[in-house]
Amino acid sequence: MVDNIRVSIITVVRNGVMTIEQTIQSVLQQTYKNIEYIIIDGASTDGTQEIIKQYEKGIAYYVSEPDGGIYDAMNKGIRQATGEVIGIINSDDWYERDAVEKIVEIFCKEDVEVVHGNMNIIGAEGDKWVRKAGVMEELWYHMAIWHPTVFVKKSVYEQYGVFDTEYKIVSDYELILRLYTNDVKFFYLNNIIANFRTGGITHKQSAVTRKEVLEVVNKYINSCEDNANAAMLIYKRKKLAIFEEKIEEDPMMLEEMLKEYFGEDLASVAIFGAGVWGKKYNNILQKTNIGVECFIDNNKNDRELFCKKEIRSLNQITNKDQIILIAVKKGADEIAMQLQSVGFINYVTVENLVEKYEELG
Length: 361
Hints:
The protein is an alpha/beta fold. The chain is built from 13 helices and 15 strands. It has helices at 20-28, 48-54, 70-80, 99-109, 154-160, 171-181, 201-204, 206-220, 227-249, 251-262, 276-285, 332-341, 350-360; strands spanning 7-13, 35-41, 61-64, 85-88, 94-95, 114-122, 128-131, 151-153, 186-197, 268-272, 291-296, 305-306, 309-312, 324-326, 347-349. Strands 1, 2, 3, 4, 5, 6, 7, 8 and 9 form a 9-stranded mixed beta sheet that branches. Strand 14 (324-326), helix 12 (332-341) and strand 15 (347-349) form a beta-alpha-beta unit. The termini are far apart.
C-alpha cells in the first residue's frame, strides 16, 4: 500500500511510566509508515520523560510542560499536527499493529471525514472483551463510538473546532456530538483498532461524567432534525443517570428493588452481560447481601473469568429458575426474548429497575 496520506498521531500523558512505552511502541511499529508522532507530556515526574526520550528518533514533536488538563493537551497536539488525518491514543492505551493502515484504506476509498472502529477493553483484573461501536443515533443516549479508535481529518478540526476545555471529562463526547449535529460524514470500520484500559478519569468520576453528559446533550438537542426521538433518548438518559447515582450512593436500594421483583429470600443473581454495565452492577451488588453467581454472555469466546467470576453461555445455565439481571447498554429487549424462548422467566433489565424506581418515587 502506498503511504500517500500523512497521519498525525497524538499521545497525551502525565505520569504514565507504567504504560507509556507500550503506547509508543504501538505507534512506531505500525504497518503504515507515513506517520507523524506527537507526544504532549504534562510535566511528568515519575520517569515518563526518560522513557519518551528513548524513542525520540521516532517522535516528530515532543514537549513536557504543565497544561490545563487532558483536553488542553490534546488541543496542543492538534495545533502541532501537519497530517491530513489525526488520531489520538492516550498513554494507557495502544493500537493494533495494522490499525492505521486499515483506517487509511477507508479514507482512500470513501468520501468520509471521520473513521472509527471497535476496541478491546482491558479490565483491572486482566479480563478482556470487545466493545463495538453503536449506531450514531445512540449518541443522544451515550457515547456510541470509542475515542481511542477515532481518526479525524485535520480540515474538520479547522472548520468545527477542537476540544472544548469547559468539559473536564466528556469533551471527547461533546466534540463527537458537535460533529454529528453538523452532518460531518462518519464511517464505522468493523475492526478492532485500539486497546483501552479501564480505570481512567471517566470511570473514577461517574457522577461528574453523568452531569457533563446531560449538559452536552441539552446543548445540542435543538440541532437534531429528529428532535422528538432525540428528546426521548435524552429523557431515558436522565432517568438512568438519576437511578445510577442513587444506587451508587445507597447500594441497599438496588437490593431492595431486586427483592421487590424476586422475593425477600433472594440470595444471588446471574448477570447477563460481561461488559461495562455488567461490571458496574457487579460492583454495586458486592456492597449488598445479594451475590453474583456468574456472568452470562452470548459472546463468551475464550474469556474464562470476568470480575473474577465465571462467564457462561446461556446453554450452560441448566437451572431454568435462575434469576438473571440483564445489564447491557443495548439489546436488553432482544436478550429478554431470547431468555423467554428457552424457558427462563425470572429476569429483570436495568430499564425495568429504572421504571420501578420511578414508581416507588
